[in-house]
Design a protein that fits this description.
single chain, Jelly Rolls, eight-stranded antiparallel sheet, elongated, about 0% helix, mainly beta, 8 strands
Length: about 130
Amino acid sequence: MASSWKVRLPAQTKVYVYGYTNAAHQQKVKLTLKNGTVLTFTGSGENNTPTTPPSTTFTTPADLSYSVQIDISCLNNGTWTPSNVKGAGTFLQAAGVFVVSSDDTARDGDFNDSCLVLMWYNPVAA
């Protein structure tokens, strides 16, 4: 099972990012941009508890093959341990949403322990 996921994003687009947890264990989600910048989201709690920070945005450059990498881990007995990660998305003509979620070391198969949502919208020129 993968512990990271790559997501390809459209060029010159503002991307909205939201993080949530559904786990007692501390969760850490690292979103690595192509230029090496790392955005980190952390937290714990049930019922879609927002991470810290709860959200952010970034704008992709004019790169038609722009992708980001998402790594998720959980704090288990004082050690950050990679979580199992899955991702899925849908893309319409002008908008998209991609969700990456994890199953931490409890390995209960729920894949809701951490969740990172990436959303974007590109208006279509008339």
